[in-house]
Specification:
Nucleotidyltransferase, domain 5; 4 domains; 5-stranded mixed beta sheet; 12 strands
């Protein structure tokens, strides 16, 4: 291939191909400057008119050509920085970590659809280099797209475990964009406070609604900073609380049935029937189980009825206030400890429960994103660096996704 053609294909300002060497696996291209322009200092970023201290070359990798890896031999100069009097290598804008910017872009796009290990295998580089290039690119994009923090109108907040021993990250999702716009290591009020403080006062006041799971720390932070926001207790979490209460009663009664050697009741309450009992819709199998439970165990049957009655509240917003009040009274009077506690809990948070009928938002998008995050962690067999993990969440589920720029 003619050197002028290679120069045109490379399209590097002020550089041209002086020599090209092709081997069985790679192509090596020696570059030289078209004009000897003043060097830019890599320390202070300024152009210094001082004399060149020394000259050297660096070998960097570029995108493949003719199905072969391409390496560029780039001349570099060293100069004395006038700011700190240190010898600095000149800065070349299209280079980073011994690769070109477009090669780094390809790494970033590959790691958004596969693991670092697979991307490294495809490109012929080691995992550590993929990690360094990808992290550098993500940090650069984060400054460009997420600084300052995007301000949502409607948002949901939830946490997801990223390591064992109760290590969590908190994700804030813009419900309208369906994207993660902020995340941080940790959970609770202290963590969510950091998100609100990253916004301006006007942006905080413009938040219209927040969906969350009703955790005390989140509620406290939202009420302190998003003073105009409507707090909505997510009904998916509410149904989880109901299912957990039913499951607690099931386990207690199953233990008693086994002690009393009640085979029929033990069979119904066995864990293999658990998912039938937890279903929100009344199927034929669930109806049959309820009929058998009505005569075998009043406590579990009553728990199931309380759950079904609560789910029915969401079907008619006109009677929701009255129905919720009646349910709370029935739960407290049931004398079933799990539902008595749940009745008092819903009484304390009744306003947030009813806010769902004023602004029907949920954390469903957050739960879906949490599943993606868990899959991301499993694919990589976990992450040791939480900062990198947070950036990867934005790459797969947020504003750093390469699909947004295509």
């Amino acid at each position: 291939m003619h050197l002028d053609t290679i120069t045109e294909l490379l399209n590097l300002q002020n550089y041209k191909a002086a020599m090209a060497i092709k081997t069985e696996e790679s192509i090596y291209i020696v570059l030289e400057r078209v004009e000897d322009t003043p060097p830019v200092c890599s320390g202070c970023g300024k152009v210094h008119g001082t004399s060149v201290h020394s000259r050297d070359v660096v070998i960097v990798e570029d995108l493949r050509m003719l199905d072969k890896r391409v390496f560029l031999t780039v001349p570099k100069r060293k100069i004395k920085c006038l700011e700190d009097n240190k010898i600095r290598v000149e800065e070349i804008p299209w280079l980073r970590d011994r690769v070109t910017d477009r090669f780094a872009e390809q790494v970033y796009r590959l790691t958004s659809i596969t693991t670092n290990q697979e991307a490294g295998w495809f490109l012929g580089i080691d995992d550590e280099k993929v990690y360094r290039i990808d992290k550098s690119k993500l940090e650069e994009l984060a400054l460009e797209r997420m600084d300052p923090t995007p301000a949502p109108k409607q948002m949901s907040v939830d946490e997801v475990a990223w390591q064992k021993w109760h290590k969590y990250v908190t994700n804030v999702v813009d419900i309208d964009q369906r994207k993660v716009i902020w995340n941080h290591n940790g959970r609770g009020k202290v963590t969510l406070d950091k998100f609100f403080r990253s916004l301006g006062k006007e942006d905080r006041e413009n938040i219209e609604a927040v969906a969350c799971d009703g955790a005390k720390g989140y509620l406290s932070s939202i009420k302190q900073y998003a003073v105009n926001a409507l707090i909505v207790l997510d009904h998916f979490h509410v149904k989880k609380y109901l299912n957990d209460a039913v499951d607690t009663v099931r386990k207690e009664e199953l233990k008693k049935a086994r002690q009393q050697q009640n085979g029929e009741l033990s069979e119904i309450l066995h864990c293999n029937k658990r998912f039938i009992l937890m279903q929100n819709t009344v199927t034929k199998k669930k109806k049959n189980l309820l009929e058998r439970l009505s005569s075998l165990n009043e406590k579990v049957y009553k728990s199931m009825l309380l759950k079904e009655q609560f789910v029915a509240i969401y079907k008619d917003h006109k009677t929701a206030h009255r129905s919720l009040k009646e349910w709370i009274v029935a739960a407290i009077r049931s004398n079933i400890p799990a539902f008595v506690a749940l009745g008092y809990k819903f009484f304390r948070k009744r306003h947030y429960l009813l806010n769902y009928f004023r602004r029907q938002i949920t954390t469903a998008i957050s739960e879906g994103i949490n599943n993606k995050i868990k899959r991301l962690s499993r694919m990589a067999y976990g992450y040791k660096n939480v900062t990198y993990f947070l950036l990867k969440i934005h790459q797969h589920c947020g504003l750093l996704n390469p699909r947004l720029s295509t």
